[in-house]
Amino acid sequence: MNRLEGNVALVTGGSRGIGAAVALRLAEEGADVVLTYESDAGAAARVVQRIEAAGRRALAVRADSARPEALTAAVDEAVARFGRLDVLVNNAGVFLVGPLDALGADDVERTLAVNVRAPFVASRAAVRHMGTGGRVISIGSNVAERAVFPGLALYAMSKTALVGMTKGLARELGPRGITVNLVVPGPTDTDSNPAGGPDAEVIAGFTAVGRYAEPAEIAATVAHLAGPEAAYITGATVPVDGGFTV
């Protein structure tokens, strides 16, 4: 699979979970990959090693997505190292949940900074370097469409904002040949929401297929949207949720 041969991709929050799966899949498709991470340098290094073992170039950049200047610097470093940028995957996010009275101003600020402002800032920085065929892909959440438990209002609000950003940027960047799309995972087996967790059976039961997704299943859809076959898909919200919202 070399659909992305010669392309360079940047994946925010690419050291674990869905982000790591996306970084590895894009490398399998032929892309060189830059990934950001916040604190776990070891996990980021392991993803880089796996990408390089697959024969692609890779770079891990430490960047707190809550800091706009750090994201912009990560984009600039990616271009400086590899000479171009073709694909941006806005994956980094925070999951702060709780009742209204328990969520303080710092929780709200952190959630909006990472889940809303960061994708906008990264997209703005990235598209400066993109030409025809550029791809901006963000990772949303199924709870923006169906919040099945109390305490999800802040997180759901932040992920809902990505729908508007995706549609607005798709309209703006379409004339430049750049597509913008949103992938919406359902319950996915990651460190933060393991398929063997205490509430996993109940959560899986909300899906039509009765199970969690593997991160690689989310990454497969991202890879399709990043490739040339998806040139006519833009402004779309693509659920990969096992029927969670049906």
Automatic annotation (TrEMBL):
Keywords for this protein: Oxidoreductase
SMART domains for the chain: PKS_KR
Source species, domain of life: Bacteria
Species annotation: Streptomyces nigra
Domain Ketoreductase: 7-206
Full protein name: 3-oxoacyl-ACP reductase FabG
Annotated family: Belongs to the short-chain dehydrogenases/reductases (SDR) family.
Entry's transmembrane regions: none
